[in-house]
Amino acid sequence: MRRSTLLVVLTVIVIVAIVITWIHLHGGIGVLQTTPTVSPLASLRVGTTMTIRTDSIFTDYYFSVLCSSLVFEKIVVVDEKGGIKPWLATEWEVKDNGMVWIFKIADNATWHDGKKLTAHDVAFSINYFMSKVPIYKRHLALIEEAKVINDYTISIKLKKPWARFLYNLAVVRIIPKHIWENVEDPFKYEGEDRNIGAGPFVYVGFDRATGVLRFKAYSNYWKGRPKIDEVVVKIYKTMDAAILALKRGDVDTIWHYARGIDPIYVPVLLENPNIHFIIKPNFGVGNILWFNNKIYPYNITEFRVAISYALSYSDYVRMIMAGYADIPNAGLVPPGWKYFKETRKLETNTSKAIEILEKLGFEDIDGDGWRELPNGTKFTMKIIVRSDIPGNVRLAELVKRDLENIGLQVKLIPVDLQTFIEIVDRKRSHECFISRTTTWGMLMWAGYGTGYIDARNIGWANVDDPELQKIVDELLVTTNEEKISELAYKLQDLYAEKLYVIPLYWDKIIQPYNAAKISGLKYSPMMGIFYKKTWVSINIIKGRE
Asked: Per-residue confidence at 389, pLDDT binned at 50, 70, 90?
């Protein structure tokens, strides 16, 4: 080929390539030029330190929590003020002196696979969770059975009247009967349809290598399509990394179930003027020193009281919460609760702690610096520490320091969430541990933290005290407000006297977000900004590439 001809051919190829590229970038020629380019997805980008190992709502606690707002629906939800709001159940009535509840179910909800959600799914879910999931046997301990009346009506029969029944019902995720009815063991099921729900978002997948979970908007969501196209959740190994990601704009907000960020990060985030904060009271307790009240010597009230005097609450407030917390009362229940009672403040008094221990016979017999049990046996307090909650290990070190300051030897045992659940929830083989309570946890059973304390329910404190259980039994059935207030005050007095557990501080929820990227967040005490209403009110201010 002659040189001039080759040059012409090459020139034509280059021109064609340029034209094709221009058409691709600008949407075509002629009429196509006026067609707008496709907008990037409106994505909410969320950073979290919640450790998620598997995408099963039955085997992974934090994945289940995440999906309870995004993927699955509930019969009722906890609203912005901590009250109960109808959801899938549009209305209900109570019959037979509180023994039977009749629920009308929304008739326009569909599963993500297109099938209708009916009363058959709702009744099935309640019965399935009670029979297959041990912790729900305790959550729903007073339910006899759920039955279908017609396609959009169910009845739930109780074993006895339960005044706070709706709060306990608020954690039941409604799952599709047509998928789960033939699954004998939900903890082992790995079918690709295991995360089909009826909520505002469809689960897309979990990239374990990058720690990213994706959820896309469900177009046929019965409450109306979400205002955003997707939610992308990025798991960070440390809160430091998550805070840095928020500060530099890699994520729009940070979310961790039932807690905000540690206050020590607020000054760092204030360096970015676009970072705003939602600050709300915490109706849970930020951290507690829990005792197994059935194990010696933690079953001795005087021993627990001695421990309470050894703890430096002001240090926890200052060094862990940067001053954004309060020294708690012995009554456990934090301010903001209806019928909160101002019981005595917890105080540090090491001399008093030592005096009580020595009266009980806890002395350093062999001169090694550590107190033995009254019978001379070596004694070490074994404190389990949840490593999934940021700041817990630092707090535990301070608690260890304080207890060793009065001659009690302490061994800290950091555990991940799954190990914690196995030891505390299932086996109840713990001696003591450090952990928080959630808002819903304080609301469950008879309210006021009773579900955590009473051995007949979740029972982290494993208390079988007849005096406590008498109050709880009355609260369970009482609807008279005057009587409820009387019982709530009596309960808080008992908490302060017996110190079944010791709150370490009362805190606030600090929820940061990038106001240059998102607005319209709604907040509930139970789910924070992952409240159902957020998905129909949120606005993405800038698009995503």
From this structure: confident
